[in-house]
Amino acid sequence: MPKVVLAYSGGLDTSCSIRWLQEQYGLSVVTLTLNVGQPEDLTSVAEKARRLGALRAYVVDARDEFVRDFVFPALRANARYEGVYPLISALSRPLIARHLVAVAEREGAEYVAHGCTGKGNDQVRIELGVAALNPHLKVIAPVREWRMSRPELLRYAEERGIPVKASQAKPYSIDENLWGRSIEAGVLEDPMAEPPEDAFEWTRSVAAAPDAPLECSVTFEAGDPVALNGMPTPPVALVQTLNEWAGLHGVGRIDHIESRLVGIKSREVYEAPAATVLLQAHAALESMVLPRDLLHFKQTMDLKYAELVYYGLWYSPLREALDAFMQKTQEVVTGTVYLRLWKGHVQVIGRESPYSLYQKRLATYDVDDVFDHRAAEGFIRLWGLESQEYAARRRAVNLSVGVSEER
Ligand code: ARG
Q: Domain 176-352 class?
């Protein structure tokens, strides 16, 4: 029997997909579940897959790979889609694609399958990833094809003895990994409705956050966070710890109307405590060590980078080239940022770096000022030379200067 490797979360959609792929396509189903830091017990997820008829059920701990190969490169690019969303799901999909392809090749499977709907970005990310890594694999998207409504799906599951847990009847659609948690659907579909407290699991509300602040430090080396409070900490543990610290203090809730690639505006709620802290700390360090022109140029590249990751173009020459650029800029992004986590906010309270371009002797208004004030005069004259010439020409032909023309 030809084989399909299904990206399996253990949820209702992908559980029904196991049976559906057998019934509709006559395929032998191998499931793959990646540990990217979601809370589910993955041993029982694999057991469930086998119970539902999977030939084999792979579980791969991909947490370290996820943080090193996807999250940290995105952090170097300060990547937030539309300046807001830290790309939680967007970063995990190319990783899922990579592992789907690896298992398919190992199993000699002709097909891979995923549980994405036809309305989201995730289908694009997984399918473009698979196509880039192995163009011979064919992709099946059961949820996109079966066109069952929610009640129909529940009946489908019931008829086949597929367990529907109470948690699956929950009002929200969730995607979680180490970089954050995304919450969609239910009451959140009304952009006027404030997300209820039960939408959140990683973060306390500001009201419930401790009155006493938590002060901590993050040390970066060449753009990557390597230590907390001076203690060297490996990537996964570092992200997990910051999720706990910042989550406790209510840091990292995001409420965003997001422009999906498929043309839909959607209301997205996230909690991303570690991402919020690390992105802010990283940017604070960059602003101290990168010269103005590079810093500003990089900021436009950062947006580009976030956009292409969001659009599913991880495996693209543009991403590779931008990563090379980012890498170069990060040579000096070494140092420590001191932070206060308090009542929903993360505040930078200090920073230091051996590459700091901040020079007190230049910036000070005090007596030890060494800045050459007289040089400023000539600088200003030359800086404005072209504009002055331009204005002079306009005056010469009686055009106005410095006021915008009516109409
Ligand atoms: N809107 C976000 C994105 O496109 C989150 C997607 C969440 N995915 C999910 N299957 N629930 O990246």
A: alpha beta
